Amino acid sequence: MSNIKIGLFGFGVVGQGVYEVIRKSKNAHAEIAKICVHDLSKPRSVEVDPSLMTDKAEDILNDPEINLIVEVINNADDAFSIVKTALEKGVPVVSGSKAMLANHLPELIELQKKHNVALLYDASSCGSIPVIRNLEEYYDNDLLLEVKGILNGSSNYILSRVFDHKEPYESALRKAQELGFAETDPSFDIEGYDSLFKLVIITMHALGTYVAPEEIFTYGISTIHDSDIQYAREKGVKIKLVAQVVKVNDEHFTMFVMPEFVYPSRYIYSVDDEYNGVVIRGECYDRQFMFGKGAGSLPTASSILSDVMARLHGYRYEYKKQNYLQKPDYTTDITLKIYVRYSETNIQHVLDFESIHEQYISAESNYVIGEIKLSELIAKREKLRAKDLFIANIPIFFLDRDN
User: Fold this and answer.
1) Highest-confidence range of 1-10, 81-90, 295-304, 324-333, by mean pLDDT?
2) Interhelix angle for 76-88 vs 98-115, to 10°?
3) d(CA 117, CA 256)
4) Whole-angstrom Cα distance, residue 73 to residue 78?
5) How confident is the model at residue 181 (pLDDT cuts 50, 70, 90)?
6) CA atoms of 393 and 203, how far apart (whole Å)
7) Cα 47 from chain centre
8) Cβ-Cβ contacts under 8 Å for 7 (sequence gap 6 or more)
9) Distance between CA atoms of 147 and 62, rounded to whole angstroms?
10) 116-134: per-residue pLDDT in tens?
11) Statement: residue 2 has pLDDT above 70
12) pLDDT given for residue 28 in this prediction
């Protein structure tokens, strides 16, 4: 691909960032040929030649001169329709739509094979951190044991304000919204779904296996209470929203998204504000750490630019690990150690703990620390949405390797 003419879908915060970085890059050999938006009359902070703008997808998808689609829209269904149509036409795509990718990866991989075309999406997983390409190329073997980290900048910013600046949770959430780190409806971030979708994508490239989002236990930070924060401070830990996929043995792996008590000795303890941090662990290289801005216009756009440049050189994902003879299977038949804070809910009537390590009862709130099957958390997850509950993971994997 000697010269790239881009059809850009979406011109919000990220789309405008893509427009800016493409314009500034002297070696990209790329130009924005057309921009498709939902509302042409919407005011935007970046000035663009009106002749580049359209509200009709076919103006891009049917243009024979456009040889790369960049898709950064919010609607997952529309994003899938655009990406699928482009791939069927043999036009390569760069996407940042994590929800769309996480729900349609198997079909998108087959479309790439069938039409001999590339779909790149490093920007979907950790903003400016090149996790996907590293998992594809550097960690292209079966020695990988775990990928774990903070994958959502909005929730991390909120928790950083709470623990580092002693702000109330609601105040920290409002500040995140004022700064544009969290949406007016912040549930996608604080309930853990953003991290979940990123984890699904990462797992495909880490272990070669797809697990549908609805099969994964996901729990966010929306019900965190002052008593949880006080408990964490007394124990000398921070609470972070953590996503992880981990091999529990040669045959099985597990994955989940939960708040976690993070100790100062852990790399992600110092990942604060809107930053992301990812720890990759292997049998022979112990832990390696990647850190960077996980959200925002220009950090995400820089990752999009990297994928555009990769296409300039003909790069595509090979999904090598899908061809392994012995891929591990997903299991929820594992035991976790968790902290559960509650008030009205009779938690021991809701959850079947294997054992109780600690229990505290007071007039204002109660907590229990115990061991429980991940499958039990998944089976009871609807009951765990009660507003008086908060759950946090207490790490048990690889403790013997971290001493």
Assistant:
1) 81-90
2) 10
3) 32
4) 8
5) confident
6) 20
7) 31
8) 33, 34, 36, 60, 61, 63, 66, 68, 69, 70
9) 40
10) 999 999 999 987 889 999 9
11) no
12) 77
CB 185 within 8 A of CB 74: no
Run of H or E including 277: strand 275-282
Q: Residues 113-135, buried b or exposed e (16+ Cβ, 10 A)?
A: eeeebbbbbbbbbbbbbbbbbbb
| Residue of 91, 79, 109, 133 lying closest to 323 (CA atoms) | 109
Residue 391 structure tokens: 């759950």
User: Distance between CA atoms of 47 and 261, rounded to whole angstroms?
Assistant: 45
Beta bridge partners of 370: 338, 356
User: What is the predicted pLDDT for the residue at 325?
Assistant: 64
CB 57 within 8 A of CB 9: yes
Tens digit of each residue's pLDDT (9 = 90 or more) over 17-49: 999 999 888 777 899 999 999 999 998 888 899
Whole-number CA gyration radius for the chain: 22
For 312, residues 6+ apart whose C-beta sits below 8 A from its C-beta are 1, 4, 28, 29, 30
Angle at 377 between CA 321 and CA 135, to 5 degrees: 20
- The angle subtended at Cα 82 by Cα 200 and Cα 100, nearest 5°, is 15
Which residue type does 86 have?
A: A
Quick one: which of 23, 22, 16 has its CA closest to 37? Answer: 16
**pLDDT for residue 148 is more than 80:** yes
Please give the span between the terminal C-alpha atoms of the chain, in angstroms, as a whole number: 50
Count Cβ atoms below 10 Å from residue 63 Cβ, excluding itself. Answer: 15
Percent of the chain with pLDDT over 70: 99
Rounded Cα–Cα distance for residues 399 and 261 (Å): 14
For the whole model, what pTM was predicted?
Answer: 0.95
pLDDT band of residue 305 (cuts 50, 70, 90) is very high
DSSP string covering 289-336: EEEEE-SSHHHHHHHHHHHHHHHHTT-----GGGG-TTPPEE----EE
What residue ranges define each of the domains in the chain, with the CATH number in brackets? 4-121 (3.40.50.720), 133-297+327-401 (3.30.360.10)
Please name the amino acid found at residue 152. Answer: N
Q: Are 43 and 19 in contact (CB under 8 A)?
A: no
Q: Mind listing the pLDDT tens digit for each residue in 98-110?
A: 999 999 999 999 9
* Of 48, 162, 125, nearest in space to 280 by CA: 125
